Amino acid sequence: MTTEATVRAFFNSPQFAVVGASTNPAKFGHKVFTWYHAHSLPATPINPASATIETPFGVHPTIKSLVDLPDPQQTSLSVITPAPVTLNVLKDAKKLGIPAVWLQPGTWDEAVLKYARGEGEDGGYQGAVVAGDGGNGHGGWCILVDGERGLEAAGKLKRRGVGQLVGEICALM
Fold this sequence. Notes:
The protein is of the alpha/beta class. It has helices spanning about 5-10, 30-40, 85-95, 110-115, 145-155, 160-170, and strands spanning about 15-20, 45, 50-55, 60, 75-80, 100-105, 130. The strands form 2 sheets. A 5-stranded parallel β-sheet has the order 2-1-5-6-7, sandwiched between helices. Strands 3-4 form a two-stranded antiparallel ribbon. The termini are far apart. The mean pLDDT is about 90.
């Protein structure tokens, strides 16, 4: 289902959002959201239970749902939710015209993948989908593992100098 072209399409969006962004730094929803900021990508956290999420890159106001995105047709979506929630997220993404989604490992089951392939009763999701087996991670395509390669393929990987990298590493400690 996922190819390099699919990953490039995901990263061609000018904006990103993370459904399941977490306030807990130990959770993947926090790690994925922080990854976007570490790569200087504009990302909106979606978390209905928290007003803000703090990362080493600042305090970020959250939105409660996809319908609150200011420009969904220009926003690619990372999803870190349980499979039954992910299916509803995909249905909402379709309605809003979100062009691409990245389903992190653990967020999908066969029903989600079927809908993501465009095989739902309503025609399924029609955008680009990064999901399923593949990538360099042991659980499938993961932005934390495969994201930089995708950014490079899309021409968006910013090379940083050693001093900037050391500063970023220190900020994470």
